Amino acid sequence: MVGKGVSDMEIADVVAILEDAFPLHLAAEWDNVGLQVGDPAADIDRILVSLDITSEVVAEAREAGAELIVSHHPLVFDPLSSVLTDDVVGGMVADLLRAGISLYVAHTNLDGAPGLSTGIALAQALEITPLGPLVQEDGAVWGVLGETERATTLSEFADFAQEALGSSSMRVVARGEPTVSKVALMPGAGGDAVRPAAAAGADLLVCGDLKHHDALDALALDLAVIDAGHYATERPVISLLSDFLQEQCGPAVNVLVSDVLTDPFARSLC
């Protein structure tokens, strides 16, 4: 375990920082966000930021001496009727509690937040200048509509995006070889952004988890789509979230970015 520092912060202080920036009311009704495991009154001097919660991430946090994991994707989605160590979720909850590690989740409230969000992070990674949100709904802003620094072909942009995002798999939907200038971004499961992107006049939508019928809709609407994968389109927010927490918590708290690859489609995991 890495040596510990000294901090006068508690888990509850970090929770307050996160919920001020990413209010819980922005989360989708089906989502489960906030502090999912742990003790709000526990002292903290080390945080691990990750996209997902897996047993490898929990082990990484334990080895690093982190008292808190801040994850984008929830560990607990549905109410638990029991916590059993031979269950995937129950086992990780038990491991976290035994290690004295708390878990905080910022999911769709991070996606829909003004300012720092998964959409803004993806725009930065792809060198897109934001013009505004793609969708606004009940105070939340979803995705980004922006412009490339210069007009380019779809093939050129797809090659750049695959390298910039480190995408393990990329699917492209288009008629011919369109020019790309105005780009819509909807990180994660973004197939339902096809119609808003077309209505906004985008040449291209970059998203993850594109479904068959969404792809057909895109072709009918003459909208090019790059499905770069759920993991690759959301991963950029982890660095921004880490930088934000480091700035807000100050030097007494060390904020780390998880090195664990949790992309289930990456060949290195097979």
Descriptors for this entry?
270 residues, alpha/beta, Udp-n-acetylmuramoylalanyl-d-glutamate--2,6- Diaminopimelate Ligase, Chain: A, domain 1, 2 domains, 6-stranded mixed sheet, 5-stranded mixed sheet, 15 strands
In short:
With 270 residues, the chain is α/β, with parallel strands linked by helices.
Structure description:
The chain has 270 residues and is α/β, with parallel strands linked by helices. It folds into two domains: 137 residues, NIF3 (NGG1p interacting factor 3)-like (Udp-n-acetylmuramoylalanyl-d-glutamate--2,6- Diaminopimelate Ligase, Chain: A, domain 1, 3-Layer(aba) Sandwich); 122 residues, NIF3 (NGG1p interacting factor 3)-like (Udp-n-acetylmuramoylalanyl-d-glutamate--2,6- Diaminopimelate Ligase, Chain: A, domain 1, 3-Layer(aba) Sandwich), CATH 3.40.1390. The chain has a six-stranded mixed sheet. Helix 2 links the parallel strand 4 and strand 5. Helix 5 packs across helix 10. It is elongated. The mean pLDDT is 94.
CATH topology of the largest domain: Udp-n-acetylmuramoylalanyl-d-glutamate--2,6- Diaminopimelate Ligase, Chain: A, domain 1
Q: What's the gyration radius in Å? A: 19 Å
Q: How many structural domains are formed by the residues?
A: 2
Q: Specify the structural class.
A: alpha/beta
**What is the CATH homologous superfamily assignment of the largest domain?**
NIF3 (NGG1p interacting factor 3)-like
How much helix is in the residues? 25-40%
Secondary structure layout:
Blueprint: E1 9-10, H1 11-21, E2 34-37, E3 43-44, E4 46-50, H2 55-64, E5 68-71, H3 88-99, E6 102-105, H4 108-111, H5 118-125, E7 128-132, E8 135-137, E9 140-142, E10 144-153, H6 154-165, E11 171-173, E12 179-189, H7 194-199, E13 204-208, H8 212-220, E14 224-227, H9 230-234, H10 236-249, E15 254-257
Parallel strand pairs: 4-5, 4-15, 5-6, 12-13, 13-14
Antiparallel strand pairs: 1-3, 2-6, 7-10, 8-9, 10-12, 11-14
